[in-house]
Amino acid sequence: MYPFTLDSQLQADTLVLGQLPLCRALLLDDSRYPWLVLVPARDGLTEIIDLDSDARVQLMHEMAAACEVLKAIYNPDKLNVGALGNRVRQLHVHVIARFVSDEAWPQPVWGVGQARPYPPHMAGVIMDQICEGLMARGMKVSEC
Amino acid sequence: MYPFTLDSQLQADTLVLGQLPLCRALLLDDSRYPWLVLVPARDGLTEIIDLDSDARVQLMHEMAAACEVLKAIYNPDKLNVGALGNRVRQLHVHVIARFVSDEAWPQPVWGVGQARPYPPHMAGVIMDQICEGLMARGMKVSEC
């Protein structure tokens, strides 16, 4: 186990799905887009290259699992994957299902409009679907 | 060898650095940002998850090498890594050195302002530095 505290901005903007082998898996609380955030659960990381080689490979597996789950549930027109971190420096990877009909298309989603939080009765259903999808793809998801 | 034709828009916007084990490595011809584009050299790919598991891992290694080279040469404030593809559907990964002083900061670079092509006498120097940096990190770079 590595020491890990989730960045306060990420904590404020997301709902916790669970802990994967490497990453804290989060659902961005913005119902405009199916949008996962993966945060390698080790303090002090800013860049992908701050991870050692094994952890980089594990990050790729977890990014791919997140992509596969969003594709299976939402059948998006495109997946967007990005590690930017210009505002929140704690290393985190966005995995976003994009649609030609979404409000930001074809631009990136960051900085466009205002987040619309999920209605509470919807968030739980969506989070369960995503966690089940991750587990169905062999990804271990622990509570945290 | 897999059949591969580089997307015409990527071809128009970039300078060719060389062929890595998986990806065609390109320098975006925009002197505002040190900006590499990695294109897995196989036709028919749109998403990272269109790659098989071994190729996903190789993509991570090549992304990391690109990050390390830009960090070593430019000492940026942040690296941005992204696979979006909303406009150009051929799978490609952006690796961009970002600076607090750059014109888009802290927003993503995509869609901000107009590209400023490198002066021809600068492009060759920069491309040589990047290729040497990749090879110094054990990455095979072939001409193409």
Please name the defining characteristics of this protein.
homodimer, 144 residues, alpha+beta, five-stranded antiparallel beta sheet, 3 helices
Distance between the termini of chain A: 13 Å
Helix/strand order of chain A, N-terminal first:
HEEEHEEH
For the largest interface, the chains and their residue counts are:
A-B, 33 and 33 residues
- The order of strands across the largest sheet of chain A is 1-2-3-5-4
Morphology of chain A: globular
State the major sheet of chain A: 5 strands, antiparallel
What Rg of chain A, in angstroms, do the CA atoms define?
Answer: 14 Å
Oligomerization status of the protein chains: homodimer
Specify the helix fraction band of chain A. Answer: 25-40%
Output mean pLDDT of chain A.
Answer: 97
* Fraction of residues in β-strands of chain A: 15-25%
Low-confidence stretches of chain A: none
* Count of individual beta strands of chain A: 5
Class by SSE composition of chain A: alpha+beta
Number of alpha- plus pi-helical segments of chain A: 3
